[in-house]
Specification:
Layout: E1 5-8, E2 30-33, H1 37-40, E3 49-54, H2 73-87, E4 91-101, H3 106-113, E5 118-126, E6 143-150, H4 168-173, H5 183-187, E7 194-196, H6 216-226, E8 232-235, H7 242-249, E9 253-257, H8 261-275
Parallel strand pairs: 2-9, 3-4, 3-8, 5-7, 8-9
Antiparallel strand pairs: 1-2, 4-6, 5-6
Helix pairs in contact: 2-3, 6-7, 7-8
C-alpha cells in the first residue's frame, strides 16, 4: 500500500491564476492519504480543523476489501473511542463534527462524545428504501443516525447556503401581508433534522464501486453549513472520496484518510473530475512518509 498523499492544490486567490471549482471559487488543497488515520493522526496539527465528517465502519461486517469492519460489540466501541480520542483535538474552538453510525451503536457513541463535545443535533437520514420484503420479526431499518457535535457554543454554522427553496405554489400561499419581506420565504426553509435523501442505488449516476457510498447531497450540506469558506475539513475514513469532492466543489481545504488503495484511487479520480486536474498527476509524498 502506497504511503503517499495525492495533492490537488491551486493558489487561493483566483486573480493570481488559481483555477476555479464548480462553484466558481478558487480551489484549496485536497490531500488524499492512503493511510490509517489512527496511525497517522499526529501529522494533522491539533486545533487546525474546522469540520470533521466521519463515516467510519459501522461494526456490521461489511466487506471493504479488508477486515476493517469485522469488529463488533465492545471491541468495535473500543476502536471507535480510540479514533475519536485522536480526532476531537484536531478541531478548532469553532469546529464541529458529524459522525455517521447505525442505531445499534448510536447511543454508546453519542454518550461518549458528550463527554468531549456539546451535542447539537441527532440527524436521521431516511435512505428512502422501497418496501420490498425484508425481516418479519421487527420493523425494517431504513435510516442511518448522524450525530452533530461542537467544541463550544460558538461553533460555526451558516444555515443560508443549505436552505431548501419553497416551490412557487407554497410561496404564493404565503403571500399574505403577514409574510411580506420574510427572509425565510425568499431564501427557503431549514432542512430540519430528518434528511430524506435516496441512497445511491446501483444504477445511480453518482454511484462508484464502494458498498456504503454516501450521497453528495448530504455531505455538501454538512460542508456548506459547518465549514467556513476557505476552511479545512478532515475525513478520517474517506472511502470513495465524497467529502473530498464536496470540498473541491466549494472551496474548502481537505485532508482525508483511506486504508483501501482502490478506494483511494477512486477518490482521486472523482476529485480530478471536478477539479479539472489529471488523475494521472504524480502523487506527492508527505514529510512524514519520507
Amino acid at each position: 500500500m502506497r504511503d503517499l498523499i495525492d495533492e490537488f492544490d491551486a493558489p487561493r486567490p483566483a486573480a493570481a491564476g488559481g483555477s476555479l471549482g464548480s462553484s466558481g471559487a478558487p480551489r484549496l488543497a485536497i490531500d488524499l492519504r492512503n493511510r490509517d488515520f489512527l496511525a497517522d493522526a499526529r501529522t494533522v496539527p491539533d486545533g487546525s480543523i474546522d469540520l470533521i465528517v466521519a463515516d467510519p465502519p459501522y461494526g456490521l461486517g461489511k466487506d471493504y476489501g479488508n477486515d476493517s469492519d469485522m469488529r463488533s460489540g465492545e471491541a468495535f466501541l473500543e476502536w471507535t473511542r480510540a479514533w475519536l480520542e485522536l480526532a476531537v483535538p484536531k478541531l478548532k474552538a469553532s469546529g464541529s463534527l458529524y459522525v455517521f453510525c447505525t442505531w445499534q451503536y448510536a447511543p454508546e457513541i453519542f454518550s461518549f462524545l458528550k463527554t468531549k463535545l456539546t451535542m447539537v443535533n441527532e440527524i436521521v437520514w431516511d435512505r428512502r428504501v422501497p418496501s420490498m420484503g425484508g425481516t418479519t420479526r421487527r420493523f425494517t431499518s431504513v435510516h442511518d443516525n448522524i450525530g452533530l457535535f461542537a467544541v463550544s457554543k460558538d461553533y460555526y454554522f451558516d444555515l443560508d447556503p443549505v436552505r431548501i427553496p419553497y416551490d412557487a405554489a407554497t410561496k404564493k400561499a404565503r403571500s399574505r401581508k403577514l409574510f411580506e419581506g420574510s427572509k425565510w420565504l425568499e431564501v427557503g426553509y431549514n432542512p430540519k433534522d430528518v434528511w430524506s435523501v435516496s441512497r445511491l442505488h446501483r444504477q445511480h449516476a453518482e454511484r462508484v464501486d464502494h458498498p456504503t457510498q454516501k450521497p453528495l447531497e448530504i455531505v455538501e450540506r454538512m460542508v456548506l453549513a459547518s465549514c467556513p469558506p476557505g476552511g479545512r475539513v478532515l475525513d478520517p475514513f474517506m472511502g470513495s472520496g465524497t467529502t473530498a469532492v464536496a470540498c473541491a466543489r466549494h472551496a474548502r481545504a481537505f485532508v482525508g484518510y483511506e486504508i483501501n488503495e482502490n478506494y483511494c484511487a477512486i477518490a482521486r479520480e472523482r476529485v480530478a473530475a471536478v477539479s479539472g486536474i489529471s488523475s494521472d498527476a504524480p502523487a506527492v509524498a508527505s514529510e512524514a512518509a519520507r
